[in-house]
Amino acid sequence: MADTSRVAGPAASVADRSWLNWLGVAPFLLFALLFLILPTSLLLVGAFQDAQGHFTLQNMRNLFQENILNAYWLSIQISAASAFFGGIIGVLMAWAAIQGRLPGWIRPTLMTFSGVASNFAGVPLAFAFLATLGRMGLVTVLARDYLDFDLYGTGFSILSFTGLTLTYLYFQIPLMVLIISPAIEGLRKEWREACDSLGGSSFHYWRYIGLPVLWPSIMGSTLLLFANAFGAIATAYALTGSSLNIITIQLYAQIRGDVLHDPNLGYALAMGMVIITGLSNAGYIWLRSRSERGRK
């Protein structure tokens, strides 16, 4: 009996501690339920209902209208362009700060700036770019008056595909720096020393060691940047209004607009966005797990 009580005692204490562990993650689970699971469920239900609440497939059929398909395609192009260039520039900046022979104050300064800039979006970011690169922006006027260079004479416009992509890069590049930095830090010095001792050059190190190790992290981080840009609406709407037919502005017009007001079609549009961003995030998670296994 005494032995049984001694065995039951530690088991009971472990069970009690497990409840405490679940209590610690309860706020996260509640947050995910209220702001992720329930809204997504409501979108799924609303996408298959009409204005009277009856079941219909018409909303899903309407997703194949030409203007909606063009909106999806334009959003994918802008997201892919900002993710591609943001990924390349972010990797180079992170590598220079972590493994480059730069002054010691560069790295903490870059990380601090990246933490702030990666969350700087919406109306303030749109206003900043309009004040800088708009038709009467500071850089535009200085280039015209002092360098005799007409930026808008080249066909550039801040309200165009190029302008919105450039604006997105402001938060895409810092986000890439933050995401890829741990992977670059994980490159062991012993690997470089082994390559050098075997007569390998820098090209050989990056060709056969560095890039193969970093490649899953770089691709996964780029997918995360794509999802981040694909779901952005505040910056695009504040910067371009309705001049660019991207899917987030189409969604806003269906949910809140006075002309194109069809909330259930908006739910269907949102479900399409959820599927695309979900695939991007799933790819990121898979590549991240692959990268972690490769370092073990």
From TrEMBL:
Matching Gene3D superfamilies: MetI-like (1.10.3720.10)
Major localization class: membrane
ABC transmembrane type-1 domain: residues covered: 72-286
Compartment(s) of residence: Cell membrane
Residue spans crossing the bilayer: 28-48, 69-98, 110-130, 151-171, 205-227, 234-253, 265-287
A Pfam family the protein falls into: BPD_transp_1
Keyword entries, A-Z: Cell membrane, Membrane, Transmembrane, Transmembrane helix, Transport
Cited PANTHER family: INNER MEMBRANE ABC TRANSPORTER PERMEASE PROTEIN YDCU-RELATED, INNER MEMBRANE ABC TRANSPORTER PERMEASE PROTEIN YDCU-RELATED-RELATED
The family this protein is said to belong to: Belongs to the binding-protein-dependent transport system permease family. CysTW subfamily.
Protein's UniProt name: ABC transporter permease subunit
Taxon lineage: Bacteria, Pseudomonadati, Pseudomonadota, Betaproteobacteria, Neisseriales
